Amino acid sequence: MTQNPPSKPALKLRRLQEVALKGKRALVRVDYNVPIRDGVVEDDARVRETLPTLRHLIDNGAKIVLICHLGRPKGKPDPKYSVKPVAASLEKLLGRPVAFAQDCAGAAAEKAAAALKPGEVLLCENLRFHAGEEANDPAFAKALSRLGDVFVQDAFGALHRAHASTAGLPKLLPGSIGLLVQKELEFLDRVIGNPARPFLSIVGGAKVSDKLGVLNRLLDRVDALLIGGGMAYTFLAAQGISIGRSLLEKEKVRQAQGIVEKAYAKKVECLLPADHVCVREIKPEAETVVTPAMAIPEDLIGVDIGPHTIEFFVEQIEKAKTIFWNGPMGIFEMPAFSAGSFAVAKALAKATKAGSTTIVGGGDSLAVLAKTGLAGEMSHCSTGGGASLELLEGKPLPGLTALAA
Ligand code: AMP
Questions:
Q1: In 95-134, which residue ranges form alpha helices assigned H by DSSP?
Q2: Distance from the alpha carbon of residue 248 to the mean position of ligand 1, in angstroms
Q3: Fewer beta carbons within 10 Å, N or C terminal of the chain?
């Protein structure tokens, strides 16, 4: 079986439990990038995930100032991207008032932060209303730092960005990771560090280019790799198998072939879809054709893994002791093409019950879990797809290196 390559020395990060908080203004970077419709938060999962940190701060007598981003407002105020609705959502979850500051920097925000009493909470408007956030402008980081005495990084999903609130701010205030970031790191460490074996990874989604790095890295660690979703067709094309009109990243065919060769050399079982659900046109009500084998006829487009592939994939899941899943097996947003992704979700839920460690990352895989109602049945659902992939790839995360420095 695969031996883990030696892992890099871990960053020395201060944990929230080690920070003296009484009477201090804790400036907390959170990930409240949530869907909002008509002024109401549609899915409060990300807000809920921050509750342990917030409760810890309240219980320890801190004054809480929350900073976050929402969407891509391009560096200037845009009411469409206001985080104000999150204050109402948080109020409900926390069961206490949450004040709102119309701007995350400047005199008014500073005054509101200074007026807080222990246990009180202030949510500040979208960081990205300032161009300085994404530019990691030191002057903007400095302005933010005036809102707190200590900094708490709890935005796992933003750690891979070198922005003012992630990479600049930790250099200006004594900082620690929050309880959510701590939990995320502990789970991913199990995968990176010393996973129970066999260790299986299931990777899907549309884009090969986004995942080549992580696939390469995963091959050094896993015992088996399952590739599904739109990205699988580039791998099949690399094997000289016809893929009809399915998704293809032509310029990535050679690298895909490299992954398959590396898997072979390392004796990692690398499974590609053996049959497919296909359509002539991608639309929800399109008539579906299931191919009898790997090859896809010229006029068809693969939109989901087929029933035999589901069987093989489920068998692999049943054998594994650690399973990491990122990316759907098909265009799951359309019910007719969701069977593959749903079957993986169900098999993972069963595996968790049987004692395996299951870790799911990435917005689309989480959406599959939400649709199947199985989110609670995984060992861990990562709140940051990009950040978890970059961690697995072994890339330094700016938000963590800044904190450790
Ligand atoms: P990614 O952002 O690369 O993880 O891709 C996620 C997207 O991949 C989802 O929106 C799926 O609809 C899409 N996807 C999965 N399978 C296919 C497929 N066979 N053809 C086209 N898109 C797909």
A1: 107-114, 131-134
A2: 12
A3: N
> % helix / strand / coil in the chain, to the nearest 5?
45, 15, 40
Domain that includes residue 253, residue range: 195-393
| Top mutation candidate among 331, 342, 360, 389 for ligand 1, by most atoms within 8 Å of CB | 331
Q: Are strands 63-67 and 121-124 parallel, antiparallel or unpaired?
A: parallel
- With respect to residue 1, please indicate whether it lies within any of the assigned structural domains: no
Report how far residue 207's alpha carbon sits from residue 225's, in angstroms, rounded to the nearest whole number. Answer: 17
Ligand 1 atom nearest residue 330's Cα: 16
- Residue written as tokens 């940190």? 53
The CATH number of whichever domain residue 365 belongs to comes to: 3.40.50.1260
Q: Ligand 1 center to residue 339 CA distance, Å?
A: 14
The number of domains in the chain is 2
List, by residue number, the catalytic residues. 46, 207, 363, 386
Q: Are residues 205 and 291 in the same domain?
A: yes
188 located within any domain: no
Is 356 domain-assigned? yes
374-396 pLDDT, tens digit each: 999 999 998 887 888 888 877 88
Residue 11 falls within a domain, yes or no? no
What's the pLDDT tens digit per position in 263-321?
999 999 999 999 999 999 999 999 999 999 999 999 999 999 999 999 999 999 999 99
